[in-house]
Amino acid sequence: MRSLTLLTFFIASIYLFGCASAQEKEADLTQFVNPFIGTAPLTDPSQIGYTPPEGWRVWVGLTYPGTSLPNAMVQLSPITQFGSGAGYEYEDTEILGFTHTNKGHWNLCNIPILPIKRFSEKPFKSAFSHDRENASPGYYEVYLEDYKVKVRLTSTLRAGIHEYTFDQASDRTILFDLGKANNRVSDWKITNSSKTVLEGFQRVGGDKVHFYVKLSHEIETVNIIEEGKGDGYATVDIKDGGGDSPVVLQIGLSYVSEANAKENLEKEVANMSFEQVHEEAVDTWNKLLSHITVKGGTAKEKEMFYSSFYRAFLWPALRSDVNGEFSDETGETRKEDFSYYTLPSLWDTYRNKVVLLSIVRPEVTADVIQSLVDKGHRTGFIPTFFHGDHAASFITGSYRRGIKDFDVKKAYEYLLNNAYKEGGTRPYIKEYIEKGYISDPDVKNPHVETKAKAGVSKTLEFAYDDYALAQLAKEMGDDEHYSDLMKRGQNYRNVFDPSVNFMRGRLENGDWISPFNPEYPYYEYMYREANAWQLSFYVPHDMPGLVKLYGGKAQFEEKLDTFFTKPWNPEYIARNVSGFMGQYCQGNQPDHEAPFSYYFVDKPEKSQEVLDKLLSDYFGIGEYGLALSGMDDAGEMSSWYTWTAMGLYPLSPADTEYLVTVPLFDEVSWKVAEGKSITIQNPTKGRKLQGLKVNGQALEGYFIPHELFKTGGVIELLTE
Description:
α7 (353-360) packs across α8 (362-379). The chain starts with a helix and ends with a strand. It is of the alpha+beta class. It has 19 helices and 36 strands. 29% of the residues lie in helices and 22% in strands.
C-alpha cells in the first residue's frame, strides 16, 4: 500500500513538475513578441485604399526590429536605408550598418557601425536574408553575406553589445560610418585612446551623441577618412591573434560626454557576458509584459497583442546618464532629482499610449512630465509635439490618476501660459480666444499637400485641451480658470456646420469655406492629415453634446453608419492617410476615437462590429503578414491595438474612466497595486455587449473608474 502511495506521489510529482514547467514557459511572454511587425510595406491597393504612385512606399509601420529596453537611451537596430523612417525596411536586401538610436520618425539612427572585411571599399553594405535573421525583445541576429559575419546584438538602458563572428578570423575590420545618420551630420570625431578602446561623438542637429567603445580584441590601426565631414567614416582593423573567438564590441552612449558614456558602459555592463546582458533584457521585458496576461485568443492575436504592448514602451527615450547628468534644452549639463526624457510625441500618443505609460510605469511618467516642465523653464510654455497642446491632457490625466511626483504648480502655470499667451505652444491663440475658432485663408484650388492653419483640427483639439486643463484647474482650486476653460471646451460647436452636418472650415470673416468636399483629405488646410468625415466625431469630452448637434441619436447613428461604409475615393491619395473602412482611416490618428461613438447612441454592439474588423484586418497584414495600416507613430498605433484588444479604452485621456469593450480574449488580467488585479471576463464568449457587472454588481453604463486600478476587481461582460 505504501509503495502504491509513493508511486502515485511520484507520478503526481512528475505531472505537477510538467505543469510547472509549462507554466514557467508560458510566463516567458517575450515569446509572443515579433519585433518585425510594422517593418514591412503595404502594397495592396485594396488595403491601402488607393494605388500609390510609382516609387512610393506608403507610410505604414516605420518600426524597427532591433534591441532596446523599455524607454531606453539605446535602440540598437539594423539600418537598410538612411532617411527612411526607422531606417529598416523589410523588403530591402542589404544592411548598411547597426545604429544606436531610433524612434521611427525620420530622425536619429546615430552612430552606424558595421563589421566588414579588411580592405573593403565604398559603398559599405552587405546582402542578408530573412532566413538568417532573428529578433526578440532585447535581441537581434543576422548573417552578413558579403562580409561573412554573424552579428548578434543586445543592450542595456544606455549601452549596446555587438558580437561579431567572422568566418575568416584574419580579415576583421569594423566600420564607424559616422558621417551618416537619418538627418545631416554636421560634425563627428573618433579617437583611439588605448589598444582596445575608442571614443568620440556624432553631432546631428541639436544632439551631440558621445560614445565610448570597448573591444574584446586589440586594435591594429584606425583609418579616418574625411574626419567630421558628412561622407566621412573610420575603419578599425582588428589585430590578428586571439584565435577565431567572436569580436565583442561594447558601446556606451551619453548626450553629455565621452566620460559619461564610459561610466554608463562600465556601470551597466561591467563584466557581464553577452548572454548575461541578453538574459537581463529578457527579464526586464517579461516584468513589463506580465502586467497584462490573457487567456484564449488565437496565436496571431496573442502575437499582435504582446508585440503591440512591447512597441508601446520604446518611446519616449531616456537622456539621463547613470550619474544623473543630462544635457538640457540649452545644452547645459545639469543634474537633478529626476531622470530626463525626450518629448513623448504628444500629438500621436496623448490619445492612449501615455495613459498606458502612466498606469504601467508611473515613476517614468512622473519623470517624463518633469522633463516637460524643465523644458518649459526656458520659455514659460510646456512644449508640445507637432500639433495641438496635448501636454494638458497628459499631465492632467496623469495627475488625476495619482501621479504627483513632479512640480505640478509650475506645470499648471506653464499650461495656463499655453492656453492664454501668444508666442508659445498654441499658434493663433489670440484668434481662438477672440472668436472661439481658428480660421483658414481662402485658398483657391487647394490640394492634398496644401499648408495653411488647419483651423478645424486646431479648434477641435484646443477645445479638448481646454477641457483637460479645466480639470487640472479644478484640482488646483482655480475656479476662475476652471469656469472659463470649461466654456472654451465647447468651442467645437463653432466649427460645426448644421447645414451639412460636418466640422467645416471658416474664413476669417466667419463664412464657411466653400466649395466644400467632406471626402477630400488635406495635410494642413482646415484639417490636419484628415478630411471632414474623419474630424467630425472628435469631441471625446462631450459626446452627448455632439450627438445633440447632429439632431439626436437617430441622426448621429445614421451619420456613423455612412462614415464606416461610404467608400473611399481611390483618386484621393495622401501618403500619410491609408487603411480605410469607409471614410474612417485606421492608418492615422485623427479619428481613432470614432469607432467607439456608437456607445453614445446605445449601440455598443455596432462599435464592437467595427472594432473587431479593425483588429482583425488592419494589423499584421500585407504580403508578409507584418504590415500595419499606418505609421506606428512612436507607439500610438500599437497602443490603440493594445487597449482595444484587451477591452478597455481611455476615450477621454484627461479623465479617470475607461470605456469597456469586448476583448479579443476570453479573459484579461491586469496587475494593479499591491498584488491585486483587474480581471475582464467574457464567460459566454459573445461579441455583442449588453451590460457589465463589476464585482458582481450590475453597472449602469459602460465606463469603469480608475479606482479599480487601486482596488482591483472583476469586470464581467454580459454578452450574446
